[in-house]
Amino acid sequence: MLRRLSADDARFKTVTFTAGLNLLVADTTASSADTDSRNSAGKSSVIELVHFLLGSRATAKSLAMNKALRGTTFGLDMDWPGLAQLLEARRSGSRAKVVSLSHDVFGVSADALFNGNGTGGVELSVEQWTRAIERDLFGLRGDHPGVSGRTLLSYLVRRASSHAFNEPTRTFSQQSAAEASSNLAYLLGLDWQLIDGYRELAARKATRTQLQKAVNDPVWGRIVGSTADLRGQITLAEAQVERLRGQVATFQVVPEYERLKDHADQVSRRIKQLAQEDVIDQHNLEELQAAVTETADVEVSYLEPAYRELGVILNDQVRRRFEDVKTFHHSIVRNRRRFLEEEINELTERLSARRAERARLGEDQARLLRDLADGGALEALTALQTALGREEAALGALRHRFEAAQTLEASARQITAKSVELQQAVDTDLQERRRQTNEAILLFSQYAQRLYGEGREAYLAIEAGRSSLSITPRIDSDDSRGINNMVIFCFDLTLAVLAHRHGRGPDFLIHDSHLYDGVDERQIANALALAVEVTEEERMQYIVTINTDTLGVAAQRGFDPKPYIRSPRLTDHDDGGLFGFRFKAVGKA
Residue 396 CB: number of other CB atoms within 10 A? Predict the structure, then answer.
C-alpha cells in the first residue's frame, strides 16, 4: 500500500494514506469566485507524482520537470513485499534518471550506497527501479515481451493527461488493441504469452504495410522489386559467377611473372632490331656483289695493232712500259675483288648469324608467350578473385531481395493464416481457462449490479478476435458519459482485485476525480460504498481525488465520507493547493 506522498519543499502539503478508502478532497472556500477552478488545487498532480515516483518516463511536459518544481525532490513511502519497514522512493526533475530508495530491493553493489536525510539507501536507474516494480509488485520474472510494469500500473493508476478515461481497455489514446490485450490478459490470469502473439502479428502487419507502400513507390520499389524480374536477374548473375569461378579454378600463378614479361619484351625488341640490321646488310651485300661484277682487268691488246695500222712501231721500251702498267692494273683489280669478296663474306656471315639468332629468339619468344598465356601474376589472380567476390555479393543481394519479394507477396496469406491459427489457439485457451474468465465476469457483474441494481445486465465479453483478444466490459445503459465512467470503475476494480488475489499486482488502485465527472449522484455514493467494502474484504487500498460538491451529493445519498477523508484538504487559494504556491504549468495541475 501507499503510505505517504511528500517533498523536501516546506510549502508542499504531505499527503498520507491508509488501508481501505482514501479520499483526497479539494474544497472551495468562502472567498472563491464563481470562476475559480479547483483544477489548480493539485488533485491530478497527486496522480502524476505517483507515476513519476513509480518510474514513469520524464519528458519536457512531465509535472516534475516544470521549471518551478525541477529542484524539488519528491518522496513516496509504501509497503514493499519482503520488507518489514516502509520503502521510501525519492526522485527529482533535476536528476530524473535516478531513483533513490531507502532500502536495497534490487541487489545493487555497495558503491551505490548513499546517505540522504540521515538514512542509508541506494540509488537506482529508472530502468532498474521499473524492473524491481515488475518483479516484486507484479510477479514478472525473466523476459516478458508484450507485458510492461509501466503499462500494468497505468490500469491501476489512470491518468487524465493520457486520456485514460476515454475507454476501459486502453490507458492512452494511441495504445494498440494488441498491446492492451497482452497486459490485460496478464492481470486477468490468462495465457498472456499466447495472446502476445497478437502483438507480434500486428508488428508483422505494420511491417508488411510499410514494405507494400515502398514497393508501390516508383523509386523505392526498385530496392525490392518483383519476383519475376528478380528471377531473371538472378539467372544472369549466377551465370556470371560460374564463369568467374571457372577462370579462378584454372588460373595458374606464374612465378616471377613480371621478370618473364620483361624478358619477352626484350626478345621482341631484339628480333625487331635483327630484322632492321638484316635490311641494311642485305642492301650492302647487293651493292658489293654488283661491284664485284663490275670489277675486271682493262683490255690493252688492241693498242699495238692499232698503232701498227697507223704506221707507228712500238719499240721494246714502250712495250715494257705497257706491260708494267698492265701488271699494276691487274694488281689493283685483284686487290679490290679480294676486298669486296671479304666484305661480302662478312655480310653473309652476319646475315647467317642473325638468322640463327632469330630462330633461337623465336623459340624463346614462343616459350615465354606460352608461359604467360597459361597463367598470370598473383595480382591478376587477386583481381579475378575480387571480381568473383563482388559478383557473388551482388548475387547474394539479389537472392535476399528475391526472398523479401517472395515473403512480401506471400505475407498476406501467411498473416491471414497465422491470424486464424492464433484465434483458434486463444479460443481453445479461453475454454481451458473458464475458471479465470468466469471469476472475472462474475466479479465485474457483481460490482456493476451494486452500482445499478441487480436488474441491470452487466458482464465482461471475452473472446478471441482476429487481431487481438477482445475484452469488452458491458453495462446495459444509454451509453451516457456517466455510465461509461462507471464501466471503467467496475473494470479497474475487477482488474485490481483479481491481480492482487493471485499475486499478479499490488494492493492499491487510484482514480482521479475526472472519473466521477457526469456520474449520477446515486452511482457516486454506491461506488464509494462499494470501494469501502471491497478494500476491506480484499485488504486493499483505493485512493480517489474528489471535489467537495461531488462528495456532497454522495453524502446526500447516504454515504458518510468523513472516516475516509485524508489530510490535507486542498483548496483553490494561492497557497492552498498541493504545492503551496501557484505556478505556470504545461497542462492542468
Answer: 12
Enumerate the β-bridge partners of residue 458: 475
- Tell which residue, 3, 11, 15, has the closest CA to residue 568: 15
Region 505-529 average pLDDT: 94
More confident residue, 236 or 130: 130
Strands 20-27 and 73-78: unpaired
Phi-psi region of 458 (alpha: psi -120 to 50; beta: other; left: phi over 0): beta
CA 226 from centroid of its chain's CA atoms: 25
Residue 92 β-bridge partners: 73
| Residue for grid cell 460504498 | 529
- Give the DSSP per-residue string, 240-267: HHHHHHHHHHH--BPTTHHHHHHHHHHH
Q: CA separation (Å) from 368 to 208, 360, 514?
A: 62, 12, 97
Residue 55: Cβ within 10 Å count: 24
Q: Cα–Cα–Cα angle for 448, 426, 469, nearest 5°?
A: 45
Cis peptide, bond prior to residue 568, ω within 30 of zero? yes
So what's the pLDDT on residue 247?
Answer: 65
472 forms beta bridges with: 461
pTM: 0.68
Is residue 546 helix, strand or coil?
A: strand
From the list 451, 158, 453, the residue with the least C-alpha distance to 168 is 158
CA atoms within 13 A of residue 190's CA, in its CB half-sphere: 30
150-175 pLDDT, tens digit per residue, is 999 999 999 998 999 999 999 998 89
- 389's grid cell: 567476390
**Helix, strand counts (H, E) of the chain:** 15, 13
- Across 491-506, b (16+ Cβ under 10 Å) vs e yields bbbbbbbbbbeeebbb
Closest CA to 38 of 564, 556, 551, 553: 551
Q: Is 190 left (phi over 0), alpha (psi -120 to 50) or beta?
A: beta
Whether the CB-CB separation of 535 and 15 falls below 8 Å is answered with no
Alpha carbon distance 46, 160 (integer Å): 12
